């Protein structure tokens, strides 16, 4: 996949997420006490959060077509779609939406990964069709 946007730099808190993305794996925080799953940015629950392997698919909740670059590095790629995907485990993940076909709420989405030459690998959503 071609480069998209500015390079992503991981830090200590996000390194496990982006290391998994580099292996084409989606991981999410999961509470060791209650078993709850969370989106990547969540850091607290009733027990320790541990990165756990997620199924890597979900359904499309909503999307938007971006016509104005939020950063100069996106300018040559306009327009593109951004979406919220409800993952099989429950959390919502914001991703760029790729693939043929017209999006519709409830469409199945597979999480795939972009591996830019610079910066961290990251998840994208691929429409699987109605
Ligand atoms: Zn918990």
TrEMBL record:
Q: What InterPro entries does the annotation carry?
A: ChsH2_C (IPR002878), NA-bd_OB-fold (IPR012340), Thioester_dehydratase-like (IPR052513)
Every copy of the ChsH2 C-terminal OB-fold domain together lies at: 51-113
Record protein name field: Zn-ribbon domain-containing OB-fold protein
Organism of provenance: Pseudonocardia ailaonensis
